[in-house]
Amino acid sequence: MISGKFAISIHILTLLAKFPDEYLSSEFIASSINLNPVLVRKEIANLKKNQIVMSKEGKNGGTKLNISPSKVTLKQIFESTFEEISLGFSKNEPNPKCPVGKEINQNLSALYTTLNDSVMKQLEATTLEEFANKF
Amino acid sequence: MISGKFAISIHILTLLAKFPDEYLSSEFIASSINLNPVLVRKEIANLKKNQIVMSKEGKNGGTKLNISPSKVTLKQIFESTFEEISLGFSKNEPNPKCPVGKEINQNLSALYTTLNDSVMKQLEATTLEEFANKF
DNA sequence: AAATTTGTAACATAATTTATTACAGTATGA
DNA sequence: TCATACTGTAATAAATTATGTTACAAATTT
């Protein structure tokens, strides 16, 4: 199972890119995603940490982009979710007395780093603007 | 969260590659992974569907490789787990009345297919033999 | 001052992953 | 042939993670 955080974040940002000069409320966004507004606000909190969006509290408040959609890459969006490309690890500590168990996680990590790097390169090659233009 | 199936499968296969001519029991394998033997047998069942391993029931039974480690790629191993590279989707159906909601999943799928292809190419470039030689 | 919105915590529910138990079936070999 | 030691698989339980809900303080607008 993989969480929907990236999908949610990119959905939010696509909406913001489509309404560049408006503060969109978490409720409006939530109704497009079909998601609880609190979860929208939580993802927005992550995007704010990366200065991708800004929000305004109070009446008529909401969220808007803090940077041009042509300057945000999918990589930055992915990174804001704190997720990682990985094919997973076994849950328990493998047996350190076994030559394979002892090193399996380290060898898997090395592999995953390679995969991650290449996926990040691809995500970096697409901007939010380009993504939003598909709609 | 991503399941540990790939990690488990590759751990199993690395052990089998290290003991090329022996039938290893699920209990022996499980003690290296630190995992319940039933789960090991379940993953082995998947590997068998892809003819990567074979097993023998009964006393002194167990599992061994059914193909040279130089002929198995990490891609085949990954595929045996029925998992997929994806950055996820939001759980609920997005709003079909919203221009963004209507197409988001289709646009995400297209992106994920691209990523998947490139990851698969990388996994295809490494054999089990090469992976096992790191230990 | 009333209304509306964000921010966040605390808690509840749902879904998925991992673990356990149980046991029938199969092969080995003493 | 019979005890032993495996696999295969189903059924169920426990643990973990993801998603959803409620509640409310704080901020801002009108």
From TrEMBL, chains A, B:
GO terms for molecular function: DNA-binding transcription factor activity. SUPFAM superfamilies: Winged helix' DNA-binding domain. InterPro entries: Tscrpt_reg_Rrf2 (IPR000944), WH-like_DNA-bd_sf (IPR036388), WH_DNA-bd_sf (IPR036390). GO terms for cellular component: cytosol. It comes from the Bacteria. This is BadM/Rrf2 family transcriptional regulator. It comes from Flavobacterium aquaticum.
